[in-house]
Amino acid sequence: MCISDCAVRKWVRIFKGEDPRETILRDRKRSARLLSALNTAHREKVDCMIRANRRVKQKEIADEVGISKEREHHIVTTVLGYRKVSAL
């Protein structure tokens, strides 16, 4: 697949800034979850929830704290050092 000369010329104009309508090359602000999913308040809240009810589910913790299940799992296993133990 080849790129046409017209497309290349258009890209050159955009990157040189000759067309002010198309020179937005920075990321626009997005509405997303903050990157502070691993802070002391979250760790303490997750730890308190687990100590209060050791059978609490991942989804319940994630919903209560306001973080993703992946972040919750990371906090529980890596940061707090909890693991599943079988009593059989």
Automatic annotation (TrEMBL):
It comes from the Eukaryota. This is Histone-lysine N-methyltransferase SETMAR-like protein. It comes from Plakobranchus ocellatus.
